[in-house]
Design goal:
Number of strands: 9
Number of helices: 7
Largest sheet: 5 strands, mixed
Order of helices and strands: HEEHEEEHEHEHHEEH
Strand content: 15-25%
Distance between the termini: 54 Å
Strand order of the largest sheet: 7-6-5-8-9
Helix content: 25-40%
Shape: globular
Structural class: alpha/beta
Length: 221
Amino acid sequence: MYRIVFLLLSSILILSCNHSKKQEPNVKETLALPYYNDPTFTPVFIQDTSRVTTDITHTIADFEFLNQDSILVNQDYIDNKIHVANFTFTSCGSICPVMTEHLKRVSDSLQNDDTVVFLSYSVTPWVDTPSVLNAYKKNQGITNTNWHFLTGAKSDIYALARQSYYAEEDIGFSRDSTEFLHTEHLILVDKTKRIRGIYNGTVALDMTALNNDIKMLLHER
């Protein structure tokens, strides 16, 4: 009798272990970050990485802007690098200071990694000249050399924000530069210039998520 009970219990344990082993790959697969292919920010999960180039067609468009040191920064600078983009302006007294403070915490934890770049595009470029942006960066105590504050033609920045980064999601996709751009969104972009995350820059908890997601992308092949 005891032998039968023992055999039954052993069978149950073996089946349970086998079931757990079968489930384990699926759990790991779900840890991959989604892709975002349109301004609705509908997440797209891809298990077969060979399908990324065919399934995810949206990438950040080419650009060229001056940074706070009057150095041209373009798409080549972020090639094969992870980057975080946001849209701000130095005279903003509402969400921008909070967003910059929160993003600085993420930047400080990664400033020794030159494969992670931070791009802050000015939405008032006619005011935010390189010298103004340079003073702003210093006043904020930002020492990360991989964090660039960018300025240039308003129409180019607004088009990049709304049509490439989907900075205002689908609400702003069809707007042009005549409508002021003001958003708390931070956009995470991978090494292939594909969007992998959107975060509220005014929420500290979102910055924890951003930091963790950047680390996930650093280990992604």
